Amino acid sequence: MTLFATAVAAAAGRGPAGSAGVGAAVLAGQLSIGWCNDAVDARRDAAVGRSDKPAATGEVPPSHVGKAAGGALAACVPLSLLGGPAAAAAHLTGVLAGGWAYDLGLKRTVWSPAAYAIGFGALPAFITLGLPGSPWPVWWATTGAALLGVGAHLVNVLPDLDADRATGVRGLPQRMGGRKVRLVAPFVLLGAVAVVALGPPGPARPLDWAVLGSAAAATAAGVVRPGGEGSAVPFRTAIGVAGLAVALFVSRGGSLA
């Protein structure tokens, strides 16, 4: 997320200092979201044997992780303000109404993808509102980023679906089940690629068609050979299509506003 935002900011014309500021703000926001999640879910993670989570194993008290989350969120505010108040408002909306809202309860509801749509969808505004004149992002940038976020949500929860269901986390992917998520995620990400490739005015570039064709071929291959519940083919397909969407976003950075 941090590298994606920094690369798009540089392509959009935020300059070295501005792009570094975007990267630092996004990193602080992501750290706050991740640590908030670990603090809130410490008992649940311990119940399912998450040995990769220090708060769950007892190596770090959950209260300390919660304080770290609060500190990272506090640092995110002045870092976001480096781009101006409008840019900061957009970014903090994504962090709070997206990431923190997800951690604090939205992930247990059918509306769980909305948090990722808000979090990712706010990034183009954070970048463009920090440009001279504070322009709003074009529609396809916000829509494509939101779809990329929803696809990332679906892919991100796949490894933990069984553990989530066992501990009462009933977001949309958990209700859908692993097989459906593996099939749907590549199509959502393909939608992100299509919006970024075909949304800008004027004829699509050869690069746009090449990336869109590659994403469509990868998605079709993942659907034709989906395998069983534990198959990694659709998962790997989704990761590949997400990578193509990110690359296309960076290539379109100069026309986000």
Structural write-up:
- With 257 residues, this protein is mostly helical.
- It contains 13 helices and no strands.
- It has helices at residues 2-12, 15-40, 42-47, 54-57, 62-81, 85-103, 112-128, 139-157, 161-166, 172-176, 178-198, 206-224, 233-251.
- Helix 1 packs antiparallel against helix 2 (15-40), helix 2 runs antiparallel to helix 5 and helix 8 packs antiparallel against helix 11.
- The chain is flat and about 55 Å long.
- It starts with a helix and ends in a 6-residue tail after the last helix.
- 49% of the residues are buried.
- The mean pLDDT is 90.
Counted by DSSP, the helix tally is 13
Structural class: mainly alpha
Q: Tell me about the largest β-sheet.
A: none
- What is the helix/strand order? HHHHHHHHHHHHH
Which shape, going by the Cα principal axes? flat
Low-confidence stretches: none
Give the overall pLDDT as a whole number. 90
Question: In percent terms, what proportion of residues is strand?
Answer: under 5%
The proportion of residues forming helix, as a percent range, comes to over 70%
Count the E strands.
0
Would you kindly provide a brief summary of this structure?
With 257 residues, the protein is an all-alpha fold. The protein contains 13 helices and no strands.
What labels would you give this structure?
13 helices; 257 residues; mainly alpha
Blueprint (SSEs and pairs):
Layout: H1 2-12, H2 15-40, H3 42-47, H4 54-57, H5 62-81, H6 85-103, H7 112-128, H8 139-157, H9 161-166, H10 172-176, H11 178-198, H12 206-224, H13 233-251
